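note to self — DONT lose this again. spent like an hour looking for the file last time. sequence + predicted structure for the chain T wanted, 312 res
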Amino acid sequence: MQTSSPGKWFMIVNPNAGVKKGTKDWPKIHRLLIAEQVDFDFQLTTSRGHATRIASDAIANGYMNLCVVGGDGTLNEVLNGLFPHPGVLTPGTTLAMIPVGTGNDWCRMFNIPFDYPGAIHILKEKKTFLQDAGKVTYYHKDDQVKRYFMNVAGMGYDALVAKKTNMLKEKGLGGPLTYMYFVFASLFQYKFIEAVIEVDGKLAFKGEIFSMNVGICKYNGGGMMQVPFAVPDDGLLDVTLIKKTSKWMVVRYAKKLFDGSLVDLPMVATFKGENIRIRSTGKVFLETDGESLGHTPFTFEILPRCIRIVTG
């Protein structure tokens, strides 16, 4: 890896993003970047987790401007490569994205165009915004692990759907509608689990849950607005909880996942707080920014206005 010069971008490119759309489209993006006289170096990822190591190395080599060419999962990996470095918490480090994924939900929040010329125009304008991040502590088998996220974490049914979607992606299959397919296809194999949820040290809920989201931003699952009250720089985590309900009700009200109106339903509760703790009688599984992780118990905390991002 080279050493950066001031103002240069380092592109972290996931060729498998968007079910290998990255492989097909990176030459086109590369030509556009050159035509627009963007000063950049780049490296392609080769495996899951590689983007984290690339980002960490880029910071160590003096790059202050990192751009993800991939999807929400690649963005999450890059974020987790930045956090061990104190510099990411200063105004000097900037994170941007050219969306190539299947969902691109983080980009929806910040009005980053899905077309490449539009996204590169936003990159060149470099209008920035300080957004919050979340940190979650969870368990992988018997080991306690921590992970940072900058969009939405999902638990319960949401994590099951993400896991099935990711398994298909790893085989080079699926597409933008895959997540929605599994929302319905997985319904009748899912079992409700009893959980205890504390928000800022106070009991918020105890009972059986269907699904739960903790959000910095509003969108996940390819355009679903499951945390509609989320504000990315308010220093608070937004929680949307779907309690135990008839699975036919999920089918009936599925369209409400996309306009945020699901929070008006009687089986849905919302909370805000700086710290969220979740315990359960059985294992509740987790995904962050679309990446499938481990299981309960969970502790979430907010890291206010710590990431400088390029916004539309």
